[in-house]
Automatic annotation (TrEMBL):
Residues 38-315 form the Enoyl reductase (ER) domain. SUPFAM superfamilies: GroES-like (SSF50129), NAD(P)-binding Rossmann-fold domains (SSF51735). It comes from the Eukaryota. Belongs to the zinc-containing alcohol dehydrogenase family. Quinone oxidoreductase subfamily. It is found in: Mitochondrion matrix; Mitochondrion outer membrane. One of its GO terms (molecular function) is nucleotide binding. It catalyses: 3-demethylubiquinone-10 + NADPH + 2 H(+) = 3-demethylubiquinol-10 + NADP(+); a 3-demethylubiquinone + NADPH + 2 H(+) = a 3-demethylubiquinol + NADP(+); a 3-demethylubiquinone + NADH + 2 H(+) = a 3-demethylubiquinol + NAD(+); 3-demethylubiquinone-10 + NADH + 2 H(+) = 3-demethylubiquinol-10 + NAD(+). Pathway: Cofactor biosynthesis; ubiquinone biosynthesis. GO terms for cellular component: mitochondrial matrix; mitochondrial outer membrane. This is NAD(P)H oxidoreductase RTN4IP1, mitochondrial. PANTHER family: ALCOHOL DEHYDROGENASE RELATED, RETICULON-4-INTERACTING PROTEIN 1, MITOCHONDRIAL. Keywords: Membrane, Mitochondrion, Mitochondrion outer membrane, NADP, Neurogenesis, Nucleotide-binding, Oxidoreductase, Transit peptide, Ubiquinone biosynthesis. One of its GO terms (biological process) is nervous system development.
Length: 371
């Protein structure tokens, strides 16, 4: 379906830029889009989506070989985070409301570099890459996607595209929470005690493998059905939340240096008591009210409300000698470089149960789920 292209490498101020061209340049592509926020019925397949182009010299065009759907995509389809995403897309508020439509969802992509901007030296056309796409950008449920080069990484050699596409978003999120916010890394994690609340999901399964590879002791909460999964991934202790109050079971264990909370709700009322006091221990939750606040109150008031909320909680728990933090997804090519090395070294694997992968065969008017 794609037109044959030739690649021309030309010298420009001592640098090399890869340019693509064809007899008649395409301007449209096939994609799944939404034209308004809502439920499944707002999804629309089209053959006339605008083909992405390079606007900045550090951008690349990626041909999508495989993509995946995350819970965030489902929430965004319904308008979750719309106020914050609008600000990121249009910080000066120049465009009219609804200018993001038609919107392409999809945060994960595995594919091939097709074209590079003038300042891109780390990639070249034909490179096999993967990326976690920022939620304010057009997504991967299409034939092509435009990304900043610093959001892209070379795909693990040991994975096919359809396997690789299930990892970037959850891996980048886990890395952001553990490394950027939690303060752990491969050099300081040995013998640290880490608790992952809700460890059988996408972020949890990646987090288990990361900190275990770095030498940490990992405790996980999950259902009995997921115990074998998390133990196979490296969990040392597993607490079954269906066997009774999970907080009472955890209180019988040694205290922790880091807690990653994928559950939220009532957990933070007791979870911070499980941290080692006055030892730099941190509780990081991925369940925050930030986007709900901006959706409900507007950007300014929502950010103010969020600032007051987290400020009060930080001070409250700091008096007890522990640190309270919110964690967020952070797109990063260098992060995915690290994850790619861990995958190829066998330190991070793709759990067999994962069925979020979607191979983008949009030319066939459908998205084929790979189980």
């Amino acid at each position: 379906m794609l037109m044959c292209k030739r690649w021309l490498v030309c010298s420009l101020k001592g640098q090399y830029r890869s340019l693509s061209f064809s007899a008649s340049r395409r301007s449209v592509m096939t994609a799944w889009v939404i034209d308004k926020y809502g439920k499944n019925e707002v999804l629309r397949f089209t053959k006339n989506a605008a083909l992405p182009i390079i606007h900045y010299p550090n951008e690349v065009i990626v041909k999508v070989h495989a993509a995946s759907v995350n819970p965030l995509d489902i929430s965004m389809r319904g308008g979750y985070g719309a106020a914050t995403m609008a600000m990121k897309r249009d910080p000066l508020n120049i465009n009219q409301s609804g200018s993001e439509f038609p919107l392409v969802l999809g945060r994960d992509v595995s594919g091939e570099i097709m074209e590079c901007g003038l300042d891109v030296n780390y990639f070249k056309p034909g490179d096999q890459v993967w990326a976690a796409i920022p939620p304010w950008k057009q997504g991967s449920l299409a034939e092509f996607v435009a990304l900043s080069a610093n959001e892209v990484s070379h795909k693990p050699k040991s994975l096919r595209h359809v396997e690789a596409a299930s990892i970037p978003y959850v891996a980048a999120t886990a890395w952001s929470v553990i490394v950027n916010t939690g303060g752990l890394n491969k050099d300081n994690s040995s013998k640290k005690r880490v608790l992952i609340l809700g460890g059988s999901g996408g972020v949890g399964t990646l987090a288990i493998q990361m900190v275990k590879a770095w030498g940490a002791h990992v405790t996980v909460t999950c259902s009995q059905n997921a115990e074998r999964l998390v133990r196979d991934l490296g969990a040392d202790d597993v607490v079954d939340y269906t066997a009774g109050p999970v907080e009472k079971q955890l209180q019988t264990l040694q205290k922790f240096d880091l807690i990653l909370d994928n559950i939220g709700g009532e957990t933070e009322k007791w979870a911070l008591d499980l941290l080692k006091p006055w030892n730099g221990a941190k509780y990081v939750t991925l369940v925050t009210p930030f986007l709900h606040n901006t959706d409900r109150l507007g950007l300014a008031d929502g950010m103010m409300q969020s600032g007051v909320t987290i400020g009060c909680k930080v001070l409250k728990h700091l008096r007890k000698g522990v640190h309270y933090r919110w964690g967020f997804f952070a797109p990063s090519g260098p992060t995915l470089d690290e994850i790619s090395e861990m995958v190829d070294a066998g330190k991070v694997q793709q759990p067999e149960y994962r069925n979020r992968i979607i191979q983008c065969k949009v030319a066939l008017h459908s998205l084929h789920c790979i189980n």
